[in-house]
């Protein structure tokens, strides 16, 4: 994943090494043209990506005829034109996401053809299969493939006119099989994005700074690797960061774009910028797509002059991962949300309000690109870290009335999921707690004290259907919040 979403990796004039770019005499002049913070972010190499493209097969299940007579989808259904539409949509999406797509030229019509295809899948399993059903009398073939395809994840795309309620029963509880019965052809784009996300999650490395050991912990089901390194790596790396033009550019961005600055001083903001540079250097050195630090002991012992809250804000705004307190479940949640929905989540401490029967969530780091990486940022105020009253953190102001999804991955294979709506932002003071503090009205929760999990993400939008689809395809259990 690119570190700077506004700049394509193949075309960006700033995708050079940090040393060569900073050595350029006109670098700072160019920085003022492209935006001081985009300039700073572009100095880092793109995060490592897997060179292996996921192989996805697209298969059409229908009678091998030129036209239908009676029965759904009907004689007016243009078989060749619709198959061309599906093929074009899948091909364009595969190109966009970096997927190797194989489209089976002929339809699966007979039981023999289906069994032959299943033998092929067993010998050379792809990373995923898209089955497009184009006639409702061929559902026995779909059921056969769904039950006997091994462990290959399968999407069944059933456009309007190809299924009734009864057709959808055999496949509804098969792990790794998701049926999209919809008239929306463009849903196929999201279908391929789910396959791409599964591949990216398997190839993700998250750097966890906690304790004093170096070790890797691959995770079952989701496939992500947790790369543990000693916690003291952050203060050690911070000592090497000087107040360069790059650091000043980062500090200038937040100084100039903040709605207000309350407690922080100029040096606090420079220290916050240094945290970002240090975190990026660690991620680059360890070949990781995200980072999470057991930061509170470092702040409490004054081993770092400023908490890494602004660094985490920017990492999450870029589509990377910056997670607090070495909480790897939250780090995985942030990575999944970023890949699947192109937006960050807000990792928060949940505090039920028993008077309003609502859920308040608060933390001292929150992204600003809540609508999406390519959308305008939400307004923010620069504050001190509330627990220590030091450094600089953001108070991000959430949109009142905004629909929100609440999600938390719980390893090895469960996701807590629910929805709500933003009621208000909470100021500190007069309240206590962390600086970004949001109160949500929850959907379908009788008592807010029953909400499950800790450090759940609050995410803009009603993403529950998309998360459920992904979990069904990836074999992850969904538990209501």
Task: Describe the protein in words.
The protein has helices at 18-22, 27-34, 36-42, 79-97, 111-123, 139-148, 187-202, 233-238, 245-257, 266-286, 296-300, 309-318, 328-341, 464-474, and strands at residues 55-61, 100-103, 128-133, 154-158, 177-181, 205-209, 215-218, 225-229, 260-261, 290-293, 321-324, 346-347, 349-353, 358-363, 380-385, 390-396, 403-410, 414-425, 436-442, 457-460, 477-480. With 481 residues, the chain is an alpha/beta fold. It has 2 domains: 55-200, Dehydroquinase, class II (Rossmann fold); 203-480, Alpha-Beta Barrel (L-fucose Isomerase, Chain A, domain 3). The strands form 4 sheets. Strands 12, 13, 14, 17, 18, 19, 20 and 21 form an 8-stranded mixed β-sheet that branches. Strands 2-1-3-4-5 form a 5-stranded parallel β-sheet. Strands 7-8-6-10-11 form a 5-stranded mixed β-sheet, sandwiched between helices. A hairpin with a 4-residue loop joins β13 and β14 (358-363). The longest helix has 21 residues, at 266-286.
Attribute tags:
481 residues, alpha/beta, Rossmann fold, 2 domains, five-stranded parallel β-sheet, elongated
- The overall average pLDDT, rounded, is 91
The CATH architecture of the largest domain can be named as Alpha-Beta Barrel
Largest sheet: 8 strands, mixed
Morphology call: elongated
- Give the count of structural domains: 2
Q: What is the fold-level CATH name, i.e. the topology of the largest domain?
A: L-fucose Isomerase, Chain A, domain 3
Low-confidence stretches: 1-34
